Structures are given as structure tokens and as C-alpha cells.
Amino acid sequence: MVVKILILVIFFLVMILVGVNAKKKVTGVDDFVLGGRKIGPWMAAFSFGTSYFSAVIFVGYAGQFGWKFGIASTWIGIGNALIGSMLAWVILGRRTRVMTNHLKSSTMPDFFGKRYDSKALKIAASAIAFVFLIPYTASVYNGLSKLFALAFDIPYAAVVIGMAVLTGVYVILGGYMASSMNDFIQGMIMLVGIIAVIASVLAGQGGFTEAIKSLANVQAAETVEQPGVFASFFGPDPFGLLSVVVLTSLGTWGLPQMVQKFYAIKDERSIKTGTIVSTFFAIIIGGGSYFMGGFGRLFGGEGASFINAETGAVAYDGIVPAMLQNSLSDILIGVVVVLVLSASMSTLSALVLTSSSTLTLDLLKDNVIKNMDQKKQLLVMRIMIVFFVVVSVVIALDPPTAIAQLMGISWGALAGSFLAPFLYGLYWKKVTRPAVWVSFLCGVGITVGSLFIDSLSPIVAGAGAMIAGLIVVPIVSAITSNSQKDKNRVENIFECYNVNITVKKSRQLSSD
Predict the structure, then answer these.
(1) Cys-Cys crosslink for 463: which of 245, 246, 309, 458, Cβ 3.0 to 4.6 Å?
(2) What is the pLDDT of residues 365-404, one digit of tens each?
(3) Global confidence as pTM
(4) The domain 2-402 is classified under which CATH number: 3.30.390.50, 1.20.1730.10, 1.10.3720.10, 1.20.5.170?
């Protein structure tokens, strides 16, 4: 216990010191929100990866989907790496950096307002972002509390409040730069920790081969006609597996806290290195978490703590903690707590900063509070960070549903609303304002509507909302049309891609 507490104290001190150091570099709003758009390749990549994976993935999703799909849940991590990380950087990275810099846009709602010349779209997008980032934050707290209870027997409320205060302090001090620097440190901890955890879990089952054999012998009531299905390539429910892959992979393309990472990219080298490093990071962390979760049924025997003895109901959020308790030494459990704490705090800092900047710059500035200079904007953003932390803590103390469902609601509404108009807006000149409004309505409508349909999972609804947006935006844009004034304005915006630049041959091969 002394060693585990010492590890935590050192971790907390480092986070605070980073915040104090980063505060010296914050001279204006652009520094606080985007690190002055000077984030280097490794920090950019780790910031993206650590914001992607949190306790929601490690505890909630790995446990629930490992139980449902078996070893096939590893496909979710592979999808996260290839679609959610690699393709996101390749397709969105460069164009996002160029256009948002040209538009002088600091947030996703601000991008919608300037790209589509609509203040109403900007306000609506900021409201959607603020409302639906809150359940995601609650799910992060919820997942972390399970591990703290395992390692320290600390009350859930104390874990939530302590984590919120610590994260709030270093984000308030140093903004995006503090968050990115801590993300790099936290990412290194995550890489080492997940490898140690997987090795220990497999060793406890006699090694990889023996674990697979044991998993192939597991039979559930709903899979009596599918022997060995939990050790099979696509598991017992390929369609359900595909829905989770779509939600958790394609979703990053439309999440404000993820896309905003591309706003802060420093240069071309950051794009190339960021693509490689973030993909590798996602393979290890995402793939490793789901791979580990795939063996969850090996720990579901008689007397399992996460199975109700009377009803047989499974508490999915308790699966991974039970696996760790049965497989790890006390010291390794301490390492895991720091691993998940790192993942959760990096995600939480991104959510808090995104929400406060969106609320301040897109909703309050010029609409509620007039004549906000740089100093006043920084003050209001810091106040909004405190407000957002307090609201999310209140909800987290009495969460309405399981971790996976909370995240599904958040990702479905946000990415379902924003993904299509953001992606098409970077590449296609003919997207119209009505098409963006329809995408917003689809994202929020489908996700919220799923809450009233017992047979429709928020996971499936969220994936459906994203696909719906990608379909309806071009259809509505084809039916409606931009005015000549809008066409001229959009042409001017897209000229940012045609600016000629000169680079060394060591950086870019010439056509000769």
C-alpha cells in the first residue's frame, strides 16, 4: 500500500509541475486553446492517442465487448488504430490544419460558423458539444473508480472529486500545452502498463495457447449452436461487432476534442510522424485492451464478483477489475491504477478544455458578453473549466447507466452531428447550410431517440447516426444549393489549399 501511494503522489506532483511550467508559455487565447499551433510530432501523436483511450475503453468497453464477442473484440482495437487513428490523420490532419488556420478558427463550432457563414450553426454546434461532452466525462470518472476501489478501497466520491480537482488545476494553469505535455508522459506510462497487464493475465491462464483453448471450451446459453465461438475470428455477433468498430473508430473523426488536436499541428513533419506514432499507440493500447478483455469469460465461473448469483446478470464494468484482481500482484495493480489514471486524466483534460473553450469562444463571446479582450477570454475559460468539472462531477456521482452506454450516447450524438459536415466541409465546396442542420438533427435525434427504444442499443444507434450523416449531407446539398455569394465565399476559402510553398528536397521529392 505504501508503494502504491508513493507512485500516486509522484504522479500527481509531476502533473502539477508540468502545469506550472506550461503556464509561463500562455500569453493569449491561441496559446491556451491550441498551444500556439506549435505542438511537435510526438506530443501531437501522444495527445491524440491518450485522449482517444481512457478508463472507458480499458474498463468499460474491454470488459463488456470482450464478454460479448470473445477474442474477436480485438478487431475493435484494430479498427481504432487503422480507421480511428491512421486514416483520421491521413484524411483530416493536413486539411484541418490548413483550413482552420486560414479561417482563424480555434474550435469545431467556430469552424462550422466560418466555413458555412452561419452564426446560428456555430451556436447550435457549441450547445451540442457542451451538452454531450458531459456524459462522456461521467463515464471516464465511473471507469476509474472501479480500479481505485480495487487498489485502495477508496470511496467512489473521493476518487471522482480528487481526479477532477487535479485535472482542473493543471489545465487551468497551462491550458493545451500543459495537457499535451502531460499526455506524452501519461502515454509512456500507458504503453508500459498495458504490456505488463496482458503478460500477467495470460500467464495466469497458462500462457496464450492454453488461454485460447480454455476460451474455446466456454459455452453460453445463447451460443449453444456455436461451439468455440468466443475463440473464433468474428465471434458470436459479427453485426454487433461491426457497429462497435464503426462507433469507436469513425467516431474520432467527428469528436471536437479529437479533431481539435489537428488544429494545433506544427508542420508537415508532425503530420507524418503523428500518423505513424498514433497508429502504433492505438494498436498497443486499443488492441491490447480489447484483446485482454476477450478472455473475460475465463474469470466468470461460480462465485464471480461481477455476476449476480440470483439473476445471472453480468455487471460488465466489474469484469476487468476482477480479471486484474485474480492475475496481478499488488505492485502491478498499483501500476495499472496509474495506467488507467493516466488514460483517464488525458481524456478528461481534453474534454474539459474543449468544452470550456467552446462555451467561451463560441457561445458567450459576442453573444452574452460583449467586448471580450484576450485577458477576459482567458479568465472566462478558466471559470468555465471549473463549471464544467463541477457539473460533470455531479452527474458522475450518480451515473444513469453503464460506462459503455454513457460513452455511446456521447459519441453517437457528437460524431453523428459533426462528422459529415466537417469531413465534407474540408473537401467539397457544395455542402449547404440546410445539409449541416439536417446532420445536426440526425445525430442528436437518432441518439436521443434510442434512449426511448429498449431494443435499440446506444452503440448501434450511435454508429447509425454517423452513417446517416454521411448519407444525408450530400443528398440535402444536392437538393438545396448555395447562392452565388456563398459560392464565391467558398472559392476564396478553398484557395488556402492552393498556396504555393517552397520546401527542401529532404522533406519533399520534386517532380523532376
Answers:
(1) 246
(2) 777 777 777 788 888 888 888 887 787 777 777 665 555 5
(3) 0.83
(4) 1.20.1730.10
